[in-house]
Structures are given as C-alpha cells and as structure tokens.
Amino acid sequence: MRQQDRNQAEEKTVRLIEGNTVKQMQAAPNRHGEEVHRELEEKKRREREEEERRRKQEKEARARKRKQKAVARKNQEKALRMSSGYLLFVAIAIIALVGVTMGYLQLRSELTRNTKSVAALEREVLDLKTNNEAKQQKIDASVDLESIRQKAMGELGMVYPSEGQIEYFKMEDSDYMHQYDEIP
After folding, report:
1. Which of 49-53, 72-76, 129-133 bottoms out in mean pLDDT, i.e. has the lowest?
2. Is the full-model pTM beyond 0.70?
3. From the centroid of its chain, how far is CA 164?
4. What is the model's pLDDT at position 37?
C-alpha cells in the first residue's frame, strides 16, 4: 500500500514537473532514513562546535576588554596622583606667574599715567607758547620806533654817528663775542 501511495505521489510530481518549464526531469535521489539521520546529527554537531567556538571567542574578548579597562583605570589613577615635588613646582610656577603679571600690570599703569602727564605738559607748553607769541605781538605793536627816535634825539641829545666814529671788527670762528672792556 505504501508503495502504491509513493508511486502515485511520484507520478503527480512528475506530471507537475513535466508541465512546467523544466527541460529535463531529474529524479530526487532516494536516501535512506539512516543516512539522513546521520547527516542531521553531523549538522547538529557542527553547529554545536561552531556555537562553542563563538562563545569561547566572546569570552576571550570580554576577558581582554576587562584587562584593558583595568590597565586604563590604573593609568588614570597614576595620572591623577601627583607627587609633592610636582605640586611644589606647580605652586612656585603659579606664584611666579602671578608676580610677573602683577609687575607687568603695574608698569603698564605707570606708563599710562606718565603718558597722560606728558600729554598734559605738552598742552601746557603749547598754551604758554601761544600766550608768549600773543604778548610779543602786543609788545611789538605797542612800540613805536619813530617816537623813540625822536625822544632820543630831542630829549637825550643823541645823534647819528659820523663816518669816523664807526668801527668795524672782524669776527673769527665764533658767532658771539665776549666783552672784556668798555666799548670806546
């Protein structure tokens, strides 16, 4: 009976395959149940081995990661620890830096103060020069040379010098002269 059912099923398969686009018909190989069972067992064994290998690799990777974290933690702790000599050096460096900065700021403020003082003195000098020039012009404008000449000739008896009274002298290297005696 089984044989008949199998033959009928093969015929249906053959008919279906023949009616389709298949050019050549190939019969499926008959495998015995024991052979199929062996193949399944072999496949399961390979999958178990592969799974064990994968788990082992994951375990090793986790172990490596833990070691790396431990090393990194030790390095961090070591980096965070500072020796007393290093702290002393840093403290001295900071104190020196603050001292230099304060000195620089003090010099800078003194320079600013002196610059402002110089500017104020320059303005004062300029004002004094302007006032002197104005007063000199006022003096020059107030002096009348003609009235002085008339007063000198009329009231004081001054006269123009004659030809024989004028003496010329020769100046040598200097543009000024020292007077040791009375002028004749």
Report:
1. 72-76
2. no
3. 87
4. 83
